[in-house]
Specification:
This protein has about 325 residues and is mainly alpha-helical. It has helices spanning about 5-10, 15-30, 30-40, 45-65, 75-100, 105-110, 115-125, 130-150, 165-180, 185-190, 195-215, 220-225, 230-255, 260, 265-280, 285-310. The longest helix has 29 residues, at about 230-255.
């Protein structure tokens, strides 16, 4: 079978796109939930609780699916530890500490750099082809996300004395997520997304709790004083925003690659705006709508050219 015939017989990527859109919509609410918890728990304890819940949810999912965890080899354990460190431990320390210094809107503006970082890393490390349409699509996504965020919160660019520290920490999230996205390829193919996510989250959770214990930040009193809204935020972050969303994202990477999957992250701020309009009666401005249109256009450009290239037998 020729390359052209293989591409014509390849099933549609539409289900993958829908799954990635749903994943990034869930992630759109994590900044709000994280900011809400930032005033109730220390950053390290909040991150530890989040991923403890995620670990429990994943183990229950594996049991429900009746797919026992495989035993990774030594090389795979090293790779999984790398994912656990950067994608869980490092990312969440930067996430929760960063939200102590800047608001959720400013943090999401910085995280909008994710598609560009992932695309550049794919090109540098894996020689992934970045044609003009992909580069333009990523740039348009970033511009659209920025327009949505700034339109929603015009004061997003105004900062205080410690804003630079919050910016630096949230940019650490971008770097950590880039490593988590890029270093999963081999594991995703060998173990599958469920196993890869489960092991990486279990390892990252162990790192968080060990650090939390060593630093003396485990506070039973603080946990006991959490109200229903805080527990709902933790459940949202742990079960939806971590366990299920991470599996969906890794499945997308396995099927269409990190660059095409990463560009969907630009939907995060758009989701937050739409939910705010539907649930909180927040205004939906023309600039927000135009920004949303740019995001969707950028995602289309970043994904469409590969399908055309395949049909031409490239």
């Amino acid at each position: 079978m020729t390359i052209c015939e293989q591409s014509l017989s390849k099933p549609s990527d539409l289900p993958v796109y829908m799954k990635l859109a749903a994943v990034t919509m869930v992630w759109g609410g994590t900044f709000v939930a994280g900011r809400y918890l930032a005033d109730s728990l220390s950053p390290l304890l909040a991150a530890s609780l989040r991923f403890l819940l995620a670990s429990v949810a994943l183990l229950l999912l594996v049991r429900a699916l009746r797919t026992p965890l495989v035993r990774p080899n030594a090389r795979q354990w090293l790779q999984l530890s790398l994912l656990g460190f950067f994608g869980i431990f490092f990312y969440n320390l930067c996430f929760f500490y960063g939200l102590h210094y800047i608001n959720a809107s400013r943090a999401s503006l910085i995280v909008a750099l994710n598609p560009a970082v992932i695309g550049l890393a794919s090109w540098l490390l894996f020689k992934e082809r970045l044609n003009r349409a992909k580069v333009v699509g990523i740039a348009i996504c970033m511009a659209g996300a920025s327009m949505v965020i700034v339109s929603r919160d015009p004061q997003v660019l105004a900062g205080g004395a410690d804003t630079w520290l919050g910016d630096l920490l949230i940019f650490g999230c971008v770097l950590g997520w880039g490593v988590y996205s890029m270093c999963s390829r081999e594991l995703n193919q060998a173990l599958g997304p469920v196993q890869t996510v489960t092991y990486s989250i279990l390892l990252g959770t162990a790192m968080l709790w060990m650090t939390c214990i060593v630093r003396g930040e485990v506070s039973v009193a603080a946990i006991a004083h959490l109200g229903a809204p805080q527990w709902l935020s933790l459940l949202y972050l742990g079960v939806l925003g971590s366990a299920l969303a991470y599996i969906g994202y890794y499945d997308g990477i396995r099927k269409i690659g990190p660059t095409r999957s990463g560009v969907f992250i630009a939907l995060n701020p758009l989701t937050a705006v739409i939910l705010g309009a539907l649930l909180l009666d927040e205004p939906l401005t023309l600039a927000m709508c135009l920004g949303g249109g740019l995001i969707l256009t950028g995602i289309f450009l970043c994904n469409k050219p590969l399908a055309r290239a395949g049909k031409k037998g490239i």
